[in-house]
Amino acid sequence: MEQPGPARSTMAGLWAFTVGGLAMAMLMFQLELAYHWSDFLGMPEEQCANYYGNGNAGPFAYTTWEYLLPFLAFVWVMSVAVEQGLASARANRGGHGQVVRGALALVGSIVLSCWLPCGLAVTCG
């Protein structure tokens, strides 16, 4: 009788990307309710309230979120990168499929974190 092998998880290597991405999305939703940061998306620098000055015109009004949000985005990207190196992320996968899947997760987390959390933190700053 043959012993069954380890179950092949379709989420192997994507837990940090998925869970971290959902956590960042929930955080951004809560910050939208508190600070209305969506008003600053795509805003030219000339429309900032502190243009040619140095007032409180950023999306988060110079709270700790302007520093904490990029830090959390960095932690998310690093956790995705570390997860791609774990043996459990590579289990039962071929060479090319593993590389493509890991690269997409890493590049996706970098693009998403640089586009929204980090981009907002420097808007009108």
Automatic annotation (TrEMBL):
Domain of life assignment: Bacteria
Record field: transmembrane: 12-31, 67-87, 99-122
Keywords from the UniProt entry: Membrane, Transmembrane, Transmembrane helix
Name of the protein described by the UniProt record: Uncharacterized protein
Native species: Virgisporangium aurantiacum
